[in-house]
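Dear Dr. K.,

Following up on our conversation at the group meeting, I've run the structure prediction for Glutaredoxin-C11 from Cicer arietinum. I'm pasting the input sequence below exactly as I used it, so you can double-check it against your construct before we proceed with anything downstream. Let me know if the numbering doesn't match what you have in your notebook.
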Amino acid sequence: MDRVKDLASKKAAVIFTKSSCCMCHSIKQLFYELGASPAVYELDNDSSYGREMEWALKGLGCNPSVPAVFIGGKFVGSSKDVISLHVDGSLKQMLMDAKAIWF
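The predicted structure tokens came back this morning:
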């Protein structure tokens, strides 16, 4: 859990993913299209801590464990949460408040 929190606090936008997850790809694309450059951690490519971080994310309530999105060091949720925020217009403002995007 400490590793997840540490990584999540190092950048304005952080996404924990798996390389084979189509929703992870979609969420990353959404952030890129909004002008953000999130830190992306692919758990299946991290042989040292990937499994440990996946369990920590499940402990936060992520089910499935990825994608897990943090903005401004705070846990936002999974793909459905991020898409809901985007549809209601608040995702862009969250990214601006965290200084992940500038406009």
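Two things stood out to me. DSSP finds five helices and four strands in the chain. The chain has a mean pLDDT of 93.

Best regards,
J.T.
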